[in-house]
Amino acid sequence: MVTDRINDFLRATRSNEPFVVVDLDVVRDNFNRLSRALPESRVFYAVKANPAPEILALLAKLGSSFDAASVPEIEMVLAAGATADRISFGNTIKKERDVARAYELGVRMFAVDCPEEVDKIARVAPRSRVFCRILTNGAGAEWPLSRKFGCTPDMAVSVMRHAFDSGLEAYGVSFHVGSQQPDTGAWDVALEDAARVFRALANEGINLKMVNMGGGFPARYLKDVPSSQDYGKAIFGALRRHFGNRLPETIIEPGRGLVGDAGVIRAEVVLVSRKSEDPDAERWVFLDIGKFGGLAETMDEAIRYPIRTPHDGERTTPCVIAGPTCDSADVLYEKTPYHLPISLTIGDEVLIEATGAYTTTYAANGFNGFAPLKSYVI
Q1: pLDDT digit string (tens) for 270-329?
Q2: Cα separation of 76 and 46, whole Å?
Q3: What is the CA radius of gyration of the chain?
Q4: Model pTM?
Q5: Which of 51, 73, 109, 178 is deepest in the core (most CB within 10 A)?
Q6: Cβ neighbours of residue 265 under 8 Å, at least 6 residues apart?
Q7: Which CATH class is domain 24-259?
Q8: Catalytic status, residue 326
């Protein structure tokens, strides 16, 4: 979304390198909208999406909690003004010394998905709350998640039993339905699995309290997406269906859904060329930003960003879009080319919209000598 504030900033800012600018007003509106849609759920912002200090400080003031994946992220959240009781160490793969450091900083909620991770926490973070992540297939998500995180629901029962026996608080279950999930019904099966874990452990006298429903709330790219209200209605309906009147505590972990459409990248056309002398050959448009400059989510063309040019409205032809580095993998869109104006030429500035999430954090630090993506927050 190119807001008036972003337009004013772009007009006033000159740069020889690509940069991203994020409008905090959009972040605030997204947070308030999602909070209203799921009023009984605590929001734990996924710090990895964009850890800019200004964003963390704003969300801390708004009352958000935070999902951190590392000790440095925990320290960033604390520096932004949040207290440790508003932080979840949500990565299921943690060094034991990092668990100990998080515990020292006051964090008391940790994700697990196997007995070995439970053992680490029991040794260095006694009496902490733990929740077990269960596998979901992520069907329908534009950026599906792999089987790297989570375990089967049956195994989750064993993991949480082990946590209880180890002196930890067996707190709940988590899942993630896949990033950029346009299907509001995607939470239904996962909540059914979570309820099954709750019931199995309750039969053993272990009463879980919380379901972490993860992220998946989308930003708008080239396609329309359901509203926050649509997600809230569908998710609450699924909770009622599978938990009845004994609803658990719930938390959500939006990242992209809060910051994605708040950011815009300004980039420059470096080259427009063809691979043959055939005048009908496909044009290649090379930008000064690519996969290694922050657009890693174009991998497999999963995330298709809106691209604006100074010549929009003029005649277009299909184009392959690529980045500037000496790496053949640095091609953004080729399987499904973009239609860009024929008049687009070297030196033209382009705006890549909805780039507030997973751009600065994915940007390489000096690959081919290119500087990391510069970030502004207004």
Answers
A1: 999 999 988 888 999 999 999 999 999 999 998 999 999 999 999 999 999 999 999 999
A2: 12
A3: 22
A4: 0.94
A5: 109
A6: 18, 19, 20, 289, 294, 351, 352, 355, 359, 373
A7: alpha beta
A8: yes
